[in-house]
Amino acid sequence: MNPALHRRPAGSPQTAGAARATAGRARRLVGAVLTGIATGVAVVVIALLVREQWPPLVQLDERAVTAGPALAAAHPGLLRTLVVWQWVFLAAHVVVPVAALCLVYWWRTGNATRTSWALSTILTAWGLSNLLKELVRRARPVLDQPVESAGGFSFPSGHAANTAAMTTTLVVLVWPSLRSRALRVAAIAGAAVLTVATGVDRVMLGVHHPSDVVAGILFGVGFVLASYLAYRHWPTPRREPGTAS
C-alpha cells in the first residue's frame, strides 16, 4: 500500500489544530516572560527608590509608620486584632492549611498536574521572598514607642508577599470550578481583602514601611501569574474530566 495515500494533507483540520495549539502555547510563554519581567522591574524600581532614599517615598513611609502604630496604641482592641492577624498570616502557619486546600482540590478533581503547580508555586514564592530580603537588607522601621517588634529585614514584606502569592494561587487553582460570575468575583474579592488587610496590619504594627508591603504584594501576585502562564505553556497529559486549565 502506498504510504502517500495515508499522508495527512497539509491543510487538514488536525494540522491546523496542532498549529493553533502551538501558537497558543507560544503566546502564553511570551505572556509568562513579560509578566515575570514586569514584576521584577516593578520590585527592583521600588528597591532602588528605597536604597536611594527618594524623598517622596521616604516621607510617605515615615508618615505611615508613625501614624499607624499611634492609632493602634490608642485602641487596645484594634492592637490585639492586629497582633492576632500577624500570627495567623505568618507564612509558616498559612502554608499547611493552604497545602491542605490544594490536596482537597486534587482529591475532588483528580487534577494532579494543576495541584502540583499550585504547591510548587507557593513554596517557591515563599523561598524567593526570603531571598529578596537578604539581597536588599533594608532595616525595619525604628520607632520611639513601638507597639510590636519583628526580626529580620524589611523589604519586601514577607507577610504581604506570601499572603498575595497564596491567595492568588488558590484563586487560580479553583478558577475552573467556579462556574458562576458571582463565585469568581467573590474569590477575587476575598483574596484582595485578605492581602490588603495583611499589608495594612504590617504598617499599623510599625514593622514594615508601606513600600515594603507594596513590593511584597506586587511580587506575590506577579510571580503567581507568571508561573501559571508558564505552566500552561508546557504540554500536559490529557485533561482530567471535569477540569480545565
Automatic annotation (TrEMBL):
It is a multi-pass membrane protein. The chain crosses the membrane at residues 29-50, 84-107, 182-201, 213-231. Residues 115-228 form the Phosphatidic acid phosphatase type 2/haloperoxidase domain. Its main location: membrane. This is Phosphatase PAP2 family protein. One of its GO terms (molecular function) is hydrolase activity. Keywords: Cell membrane, Hydrolase, Membrane, Transmembrane, Transmembrane helix. It comes from the Bacteria. The keyword Cell membrane applies. PANTHER family: DECAPRENYLPHOSPHORYL-5-PHOSPHORIBOSE PHOSPHATASE RV3807C-RELATED, SPHINGOSINE-1-PHOSPHATE PHOSPHOHYDROLASE. GO terms for cellular component: plasma membrane. InterPro entries: PAP2/HPO (IPR000326), PAP2/HPO_sf (IPR036938). It is found in: Cell membrane. Gene3D superfamilies: Phosphatidic acid phosphatase type 2/haloperoxidase. It holds the Pfam family PAP2.
